[in-house]
Amino acid sequence: MGSAPSVDRVRRLITDVSRRNRPVMIAAEIGLDAVAVARAIHDGSTRAGGPFIAVDCSLREAASLDQKLFGSPAGAAGGGLEQLAEDSLVGSALGGTLVLAHLTELPSPLQGRLARVLRDRQVCKPPQGSEPLDVLVVATVRGNLEDHVRDGKISRDLCSRFSITLDLPALRHRAADIPMLIGCVVSEAAAAAGRDVPAFSREALSLLAALPWRRNFDELREVLDVLVRVGADAGTVGLDDVLGHVPIDRLAPEQWQGAGLREARNAFEREYIAAALSRHGWRMKEAARTLGIQRTNLYRKVRQLGIARARVKSIGD
User: Fold this and answer.
1) Domain 5-169 CATH (choose: 3.30.930.10, 3.40.50.150, 3.40.50.300, 3.30.457.10)
2) At what angle do helices 34-43 and 5-18 cross, to 10 degrees?
3) Fewest C-beta in 10 Å: which of 10, 229, 241, 257?
4) What count of other Cβ atoms lies within 10 Å of the Cβ of residue 275?
């Protein structure tokens, strides 16, 4: 969801990948649902009617994972192919999609087996013999794929078998989408809390859009759980509600922590407004629009907070 260019690019990639039968790697930060994206790829493909099997590699011991994935001891069978049991996860996913979440947790020997299977695109299934690997394999990793390869968490050989890499955009790169996403997620938060859905002021939305959202949707849901309770009585969540109830470490640099609420709020507001002014070359009308306040209020805030004007010629004030 959303209109950010990075989101449009992901949607186009999902559509393109769904038409192919090539292994896909999805890289996503914490708080982004890579398995849901894998599901979208599956549902948009000709495999939509087949099985969709997802396994979290971080939740199983190496021995049980080996048995679950392949259902047979390691070792090449006839023609040098990997053996595959009928009731294995790979076997059960034939005609559909197999998702390997948190691929970095897959032990090295298993990574080697998987790399061989993806290389050969054939498996040995006694007693029938060899047959094509009719499975779309999707793997997910948290963070940057190349970092994991460099750190030895994923073998370069296995990585090379994934010809398509899909990087999910973090929320901090989608500031323009935040108000729309809040509108979607806040309904869930209100329903869970048994409260009415509050409105959000433009100032509150502008501030929330500027947050770094280090844990993406996990953090967004936590924040909205709090703000729904705060705004339930008034019916509206304002700027002061966000400043007063969102932990300072989400809003501000480390040097602000330990300060009183008023001091921290003024410090954050000063930095936030100064950044908006700088971004717009001190064009007050445009900065005020971004901040969601009237231009006269922006002039007043600048004076109150003692924000020094940069030596930039103001245009259109």
Assistant:
1) 3.40.50.300
2) 50
3) 257
4) 13
Question: Residues 159, 113: contact at Cβ < 8 Å?
Answer: no
Write out the chain's pLDDT in tens, 317 residues.
888 888 999 999 999 999 888 999 999 999 999 999 999 999 999 999 999 999 999 887 777 888 888 886 555 445 577 777 778 898 899 999 999 999 999 999 899 999 999 998 888 776 667 788 899 999 999 988 999 999 999 999 999 999 899 999 999 888 889 999 999 999 999 998 888 899 998 888 888 887 888 899 999 999 999 999 887 677 899 888 888 888 756 655 554 555 555 666 677 777 778 777 876 778 888 888 777 778 888 888 888 888 876 433 333 34
pTM of the predicted protein model: 0.75
Dihedral of alpha carbons 138, 142, 143, 145, sign = negative
E strands, 29-135, in order: 52-56, 97-101, 122-125, 129-132
Question: What whole-number distance in Å separates Cα of residue 109 and Cα of residue 159?
Answer: 14
Tokens of 290: 């971004």
Answer whether 100's CB lies under 8 Å from 57's CB: yes
How many other C-beta atoms lie within 10 A of the C-beta of residue 136?
26
C-alpha distance from residue 137 to each of 22, 38, 181, 252, 255 (Å): 8, 10, 30, 41, 46
**Phi-psi region at 31: left, alpha or beta (left = phi > 0; alpha = psi -120 to 50):** left
Whether the CB-CB separation of 228 and 246 falls below 8 Å is answered with no
Residue 52 phi/psi, 5-degree rounding, is -125, 110
Tokens 């396994």, located at residue: 55
Query: Could you tell me which residues are beta bridge partners of residue 101?
Result: 56
How far is residue 142 from each of residues 34, 167, 170, measured CA to CA in Å?
9, 10, 12
